[in-house]
Structure to design on (168 residues):
């Protein structure tokens, strides 16, 4: 099936939105967790490294779960529909700063960052897999992914300009 340019742009817009959120988080997370939240840099390093390892284990599990999903809404759409709100809530929770002792703050940082990573994975993997059910044509898949990558790079470039300017 041949995709229209608008369909390719629509497909790319989803990754563009995800890239804006995740790139913004990547740019400010260290500052936020150390200077605002009050984590020790060593604790933050352990947190970020450990969650990346956890994510490497979780990704294939989520990929398998999404591959075996078959609902009346499709294979990947339910994941996008039902995980978008938890993803947004996890971002909000990550930036809440409970006024409590250090150990509780550290536990809160772990819980919210793991939740953010998990909900991101539960959206990103089905989203990237979506192209397999949008079209059977390998050339159209390449073309749609080309739009997705270009739009993602535009988003990342914009974030690298806007986030530092907003911090001034």
């Amino acid at each position: 099936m041949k995709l229209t340019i608008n369909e390719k742009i629509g497909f790319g817009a989803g990754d563009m939105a995800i890239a804006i959120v995740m790139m913004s988080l990547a740019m400010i997370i260290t500052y936020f967790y150390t200077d605002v939240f009050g984590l020790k840099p060593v604790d933050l390093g352990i947190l970020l490294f450990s969650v990346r390892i956890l994510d490497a284990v979780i990704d294939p599990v989520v990929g398998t779960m999404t591959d075996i999903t078959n609902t009346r809404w499709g294979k990947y759409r339910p994941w996008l529909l039902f995980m978008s709100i938890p993803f947004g809530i996890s971002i909000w929770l990550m930036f809440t700063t409970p006024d409590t002792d250090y150990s509780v703050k550290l536990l809160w940082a772990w819980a919210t960052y793991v939740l953010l990573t998990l909900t991101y994975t539960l959206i990103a993997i089905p989203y990237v897999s979506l192209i397999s059910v949008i079209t059977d044509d390998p050339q159209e898949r390449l073309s749609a992914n080309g739009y997705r990558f270009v739009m993602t790079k535009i988003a990342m470039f914009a974030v690298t300009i806007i986030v530092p300017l907003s911090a001034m």
The longest helix spans residues 5-36. The chain has six helices and no strands. The radius of gyration is 18 Å.
